[in-house]
Design brief:
Elements lengths: L4 E7 H5 L9 H13 L4 E5 L1 E2 L2 E2 L16 H12 L2 H11 L3 E7 L11 H5 L4 E3 L6 E6 L4 H15 L5 E5 L21 H11 L12 E2 L4 E5 L10 E4 H25 L3 E6 L3 E2 L14 E2 L2 H6 L5 E4 L17 H6 L2 H7 L4 E7 L10 H10 L9 E5 L1 H6 L2
Parallel strand pairs: 1-2, 1-17, 2-5, 5-8, 8-12, 12-15, 15-16, 16-17
Antiparallel strand pairs: 3-4, 6-7, 9-10, 10-11, 13-14
Helix pairs in contact: 2-4, 6-8
Length: about 400
């Protein structure tokens, strides 16, 4: 197990809310890394995203220090006026010989009172449906150069903290809001995507009178009507080419981030969930409403990423929660496709959500890690990502 990584997720915004009569400052952060190191943790993902706002001293994005009128927010404001938590996290990661990656979300910019500055300034950059009128609140489409430039500015100031790298996540709180989810693949008709598709294939994917779905095992094709008999479509477009085009913009941002981090001698780790990944409407439906192709093979081939965090499909589909939980072996088996595709060319990590309500403590980190890292199928992964730290520290 010593060759495998034990990665601990720290959502500092949540963690600091568990201390009621004090600020979760230097002595607590020191203790966090000390306990993590004693349990074999060798990598920490330190989250700076609080939906749209951020929990560090940013000169780019809104800082989470005056958003919600409650005791937690008052403590957060005091923290930001007293010290920079990311600066302390890097300091104590170094003290205990733990690698630290700053964890930033890509598709999580809206929630009441904590939306990003970018969300307020450029709502038109969000994913849009075919009508052009309905937006997926808080979920940006990286087809816009201005969006990528803005997010890259955040990456640059985060890189200045001197961490080991950046962890880019596609998890999102946006589905918990009042966003509509009428059918799968509802969004992704932003103007740059539509124009590029027409340029390549000669088809305007927004023009239609009616839509029908033809599903095969891995593909959905959309017959698009432009007048005439409804049983005789004039043309149809290929869903896979559309998904791949949307994914190109996602990959473009990953490339831009990776190239910058390389200059700083830092690495990039990215979360994926299958070849066609997207934002899932957690708690509302298990439809994927902002789907795109995740070209992880290309990222690895081009040396853009040093690792992939794999989100098992079942963990993103709450409709399956009522069924028996998969075994450790079944979870590990989901990694086989990635190992077969990528061999040992990059690190492959499994994301694991630690359930609340069991009163775990720091010592349970090793228990969870060993279940996966000492399993007969452990050759399929290079480490486990445990979500999240506060469960172990506070026995939640």
């Amino acid at each position: 197990m010593s060759e495998k990584d034990i990665i601990l997720n720290v959502d500092y915004f949540d963690t600091c809310g568990n201390i009621k009569n004090d600020l979760y400052g230097e002595k607590y952060i020191d203790n966090l890394f000390k306990n993590a190191a004693e349990q074999g943790v060798n990598i920490v993902f330190w989250r700076i995203s609080v939906v749209g706002k951020v929990f560090y001293r940013s000169n780019v994005e809104y800082i989470i220090n005056d958003s919600i009128d409650n005791e937690h927010s008052k403590r957060v404001k005091d923290i930001m006026s007293s010290f920079d938590p990311v600066e302390l996290a890097v300091k104590y990661a170094r003290k205990y010989n733990i690698q630290i990656y700053i964890w930033m979300t890509m598709y999580d910019d809206y929630y009441p009172k904590i939306s990003s500055k970018l969300m307020q300034e450029h709502p038109e950059w969000q994913w849009v449906d075919r009508s052009g009128d309905l937006y997926y609140q808080g979920v940006f489409n990286y087809c816009y150069e201005g969006l990528r430039e803005y997010k890259l500015k955040m990456i640059k100031e985060l890189a200045d903290y001197g961490s080991d790298g950046i962890f880019l996540s596609i998890r999102s709180h946006a589905p918990h809001t009042d966003n509509p989810y009428d059918y799968e693949d509802m969004f992704g008709y932003n103007k740059p995507v539509v124009e590029e598709y027409k340029k390549r294939y000669g088809i305007d994917i927004t023009q239609f009178d009616d839509v029908r779905f033809e599903r095969t095992e891995n593909l959905v094709r959309y017959p698009l009507y432009s007048g005439g008999p409804k049983d005789k479509p004039l043309y149809m477009y290929d869903d896979e080419t559309w998904q791949r085009l949307k994914g190109e913009y996602h990959s473009l941002f990953i490339r831009e981030v990776s190239e910058y981090l390389r200059e700083k001698n830092q690495k990039l780790i990215v979360l994926v969930s299958g070849d066609y990944t997207g934002v899932y409407a957690l708690g509302l439906t298990n439809k994927r409403t902002a789907l795109f192709h995740a070209d992880y093979n290309k990222w690895v081939d081009e040396g853009l990423v040093s690792g992939l965090v794999i989100m098992p499909v079942y963990q993103w589909q709450p409709a399956l929660y009522k069924k028996p939980c998969p075994t450790v072996e079944q979870e590990l088996e989901q990694l086989r496709r990635y190992r077969n595709d990528l061999g040992n060319r990059t690190k492959i990590y499994l994301w694991y959500d630690v359930a609340y309500g069991h009163k775990y403590n720091w010592n349970d980190i090793r228990m969870f890690a060993e279940k996966y890292l000492k399993n007969e199928k452990s050759y399929l992964l290079d480490g486990i990502v445990l979500h999240e730290e506060q469960v172990f520290e506070f026995g939640l």
